[in-house]
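Please decode residue identities from the backbone states below.
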């Protein structure tokens, strides 16, 4: 169970980018975080995970995030990642091992088997010795997911993982994430394609600086909630009216 309590953040100390967002997810699920551009979706995650300054608390099974941080994985937006860093695909995935290792502890043979297994899962084993800079966007995203698998994180946060990637990679990733859910994980995905919301997410968080709605997708993916978050101009093929 992960609980967010009054998560807030401001970049300039005057305007709130995220204001008092509270909710709890208490069972394995794939959770979509949606809202218009600039709604504070990325900021919410960064503040909740203490990656930027903010206020509020995140607890895991009632314990502080600090105590449970090894169980949390975060994959930032692609635009924030330096692709030119000289590192191979295998090495990049192996970085997922480090949160659970002590400083200077070596990577064992068994660890490399774990890396190989993760690469197999994302169908990227043949790319193990390639430089990450040589990958397509979709392939790279698969590598980042493999890294969270190696870390064996229970709580996975993915910021816009499907932006600019091919349909095959998107499908591979979604199948994998559904498998993760069956293993008991809670996966949060910032997402902007509203047409896939009902297919992809069990639970939904609708944000526009404040929390507009949160709950099972079939209950909260409504025209009223979407209008409140996105304004009157929103057009969505799905979504039931709860007027
Ligand atoms: N590093 C930063 N410095 C200053 N302001 C920022 C910074 N990052 C985000 N903001 C501002 O905070 C607000 C929320 O941004 P955020 O990136 O969290 O929104 P988002 O919902 O993830 O947006 P998008 O869908 O466009 O990615 C926006 O007004 C944005 O301009």
């Amino acid at each position: 169970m992960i609980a967010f309590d009054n998560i807030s953040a401001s970049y300039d100390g005057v305007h709130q980018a995220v204001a008092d967002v509270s909710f709890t997810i208490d069972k394995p699920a794939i959770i979509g975080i949606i809202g218009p551009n600039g709604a504070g979706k990325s900021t919410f995650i960064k503040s909740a995970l203490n990656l930027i300054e903010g206020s509020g608390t995140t607890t895991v099974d009632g314990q502080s995030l600090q105590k449970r941080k090894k169980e949390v994985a975060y994959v930032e937006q692609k635009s924030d990642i330096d692709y030119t860093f000289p590192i191979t695909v295998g090495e990049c995935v192996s970085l997922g091992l480090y949160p659970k290792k002590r400083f200077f502890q070596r990577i064992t043979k068994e660890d490399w088997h774990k890396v190989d297994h993760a690469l197999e899962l994302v169908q990227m084993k043949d790319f193990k010795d390639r430089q990450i800079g040589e990958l397509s966007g979709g392939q790279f995203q698969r590598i980042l997911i493999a890294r969270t698998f190696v870390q064996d994180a229970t709580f996975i946060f993915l910021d816009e993982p499907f932006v600019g990637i091919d349909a095959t990679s998107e499908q591979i990733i979604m199948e994998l994430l559904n498998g993760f859910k069956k293993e008991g994980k809670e996966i949060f995905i910032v997402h902007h394609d509203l047409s896939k919301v009902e297919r992809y997410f069990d639970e939904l968080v609708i944000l526009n600086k404040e929390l507009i709605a949160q709950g099972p997708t079939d209950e909260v993916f409504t025209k009223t909630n979407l209008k409140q978050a996105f304004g009157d101009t929103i057009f969505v093929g799905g979504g039931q009216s709860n007027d």
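Observation: The mean pLDDT is 90.
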